[in-house]
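Write out the 3D structure for:
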Amino acid sequence: MFLTPRPLMLTVTVFLSTGWDNRTTHTTALHPTDSPPVISTYSISDGQTGAVSLAPYYNSAGYSGRMATVSLATEGFNKVRVHGLLTDFADFYSKGVTETYVDSNGKVHDRTLTVDGTSPYVKETSFNGEDQVIVTDLTAVDDELRGFQNGFAAYDKDTDISYGFLVPFFTGESYVGKVVRVEQGQYNNSNTSAFNGWKEEYKATGGEVPNDKVKVLDLTAVDPTLRGFMAGFADETYAYFVPFFNGNTFASKLVRVNFKTFDAASVQVLDLSLADKRLAGFYGGFRSTCKNKASISH
């Protein structure tokens, strides 16, 4: 998943009635009165913000560049919640799909392709007239943008922008080093879903890929062996790419790039085989963090 959803900020106004008036009346009873209202603002996470994106690798047509981006903010798609749920991951009311087939003995059977309640929201039946899933064909930008291995997200706290990265691997013809960075959008009070920035521009182009939101950095322009990566991850500044196989040999060069500038000048390479020749062909990775900076005396 590219986008780590952030909590939806909801403003809740609470009126608290407090206090008693100890004024004595003819009946000597105590009479409650309302004090001035107290207004408080809370931050509530509803778990249904942002979007997830899936890295395309391979499908029935071959090595794929069709990225799926799924909106998690489903409350806009259906306002009817008779089953008591505020939001749904999929369309709760959608009907399953079955097909009829004939087996090798000539008998006719029905088999289930999807079950009830698992369909994404579609514009024909959505309350807001929009699709929950947007399909982006990255090969429209570059034909080699296909056959990715994994994806990951990075967040720039200085600009409040969320990015998604696709890890280059194999196109079906060659191992590649073209990293894709997708700008998912901003988090703010008026745009709580990082999906919105991408979606609105995508719609405005009539379904074409918004090129200024998709950036490509070819690592082979820095070093022709920087290709065939298997995974990636990010810290606050850098995106890291895990070496696996570059087309000639199992790869050992760990790469990082400043994901904010995202240019060849910020590409840094560490050849792990120079520490141990068997350090090659990695399949994943992770980073560890330190809560507090250590003070070191020399």
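Residues 237 and 261 are 10 Å apart (CA to CA).
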